[in-house]
Design goal:
Blueprint lengths: L1 H12 L8 H12 L4 H10 L14 H5 L25 H4 L11 H16 L10 H14 L18 E4 L2 E4 H17 L4 H13 L6 H5 L9 H16 L8 E2 L1 H29 L2 H8 L1
Parallel strand pairs: 1-3
Antiparallel strand pairs: 1-2
The structure holds 2-acetamido-2-deoxy-beta-D-glucopyranose (3 copies) and zinc ion.
Length: 295
């Protein structure tokens, strides 16, 4: 019996052991905080649990901490979406389902889901109060970051790189973990004086400087959609093919060449995740719009 339970737990978790590490989630939410409007920030603070002390970034890893618990197992497939191996493209209808075949149970489906919940609560025409909006906010913030991690939209065959064994310098690991955690941690140590905030500030400087003319295009979706996770996922799988999987096959030793050429990709994804999260929250939690509609 104990053995069967353990096997069950293993099967549930084998795919979700890794996720943009704590640093990645912190960075995305920290960047987003800097671009929230006053109204959106006020609503975020209202929704956050007390222990967050008004800081969204402090709770953005929460969905990774809880997915181990039985009560939250159902959230595990919501952190990623797998695509057919070597195709390098993504299609919602083809790819967004979990291992039991339930449709919409994937990271892009979850982003649509939680956007809808916040929208119906705050933009008013169909207030749906059965949802816990604190959870909706935190899940949305978390999954917006995950969908920007290229290997969260990786191949089915290697479970998004989680079973693709490589070495990171001398350390044995898997490719997924390299992208969730090791590139960021190595950069923080090597270039940012072991201080994550210094890395976040460097990315913020690029947002106002080198990338400033790209920001509008990062934020915009087709057809005036509020959020476009399908676009973010399509970008991710392309980056997975062109950067993550490239020159990383089972047994590869990834060192300076790989690290230095992939770090800019990671930093830009953190920036895009943050900017886009702020953009969607600004639309959803804009108090003025709510007043306007209720008049
Ligand atoms: C949508 O959110 C509800 C409430 O948290 C949850 O029960 C449901 O499983 C979610 N579905 C997806 C695809 O995120
Ligand atoms: C909403 O969810 C949070 C996190 O799971 C929980 O702490 C809180 O009690 C919930 N609020 C309500 C009203 O159920
Ligand atoms: C800033 O942008 C430049 C040009 O795109 C890029 O080479 C550099 O890696 C970026 N730095 C950070 C911290 O994002
Ligand atoms: Zn995650």
């Amino acid at each position: 019996m104990g053995w069967i339970v353990r096997l069950f737990v293993l099967m549930q978790l084998v795919h979700v052991v890794f996720c943009w590490g704590k640093h990645g989630h912190y960075a995305v939410c920290k960047i987003a905080e800097g671009y929230l409007t006053k109204d959106a920030m006020a609503t975020v603070k209202e929704l956050l649990p007390d222990y967050a002390n008004g800081e969204l970034a402090s709770v953005c890893s929460w969905p990774d901490d809880i997915k181990w618990y039985y009560r939250w197992y159902w959230t595990s497939p919501l952190h990623y979406v797998d695509t057919p191996s070597f195709k390098c493209n993504y299609k919602y209808g083809r790819d967004c389902y979990d291992s039991a075949g339930r449709r919409n149970n994937c990271v892009t489906g979850a982003i649509f889901n939680y956007t809808k919940q916040l929208f119906s609560a705050y933009q008013g025409y169909n207030p749906n109060l059965k949802y816990n909006l604190t959870e909706a906010l935190i899940f949305l913030a978390h999954y917006m970051a995950d969908v920007h991690q290229p290997l969260h939209v990786g191949f089915t065959g290697d479970l998004g790189g989680t079973i693709l064994k490589v070495r990171w310098y001398r350390k044995k690991t898997n490719l997924h973990h390299v992208w969730d955690t090791l590139i960021i941690d190595t950069a923080v140590k090597t270039f940012y004086g072991s201080d994550l905030s210094t890395m976040v500030r460097a990315i913020q400087r690029n947002i106002t400087d080198a990338w400033s003319s790209d920001i509008a295009s990062w934020k915009s979706c087709r057809h005036h959609d509020r959020v476009c996770p399908n676009l973010y996922a399509a970008e991710s799988v392309r980056l997975a093919c062109n950067f993550a999987y490239k020159n990383a096959t089972p047994g590869s030793i990834l060192e300076d060449d790989y690290f230095l050429s992939r770090l800019p990709v990671v930093e830009k994804r953190l920036a895009q995740g943050g900017i886009r999260l702020a953009a969607v929250l600004n639309q959803l939690l804009n108090f003025e719009v709510k007043i306007g509609q209720s008049l």
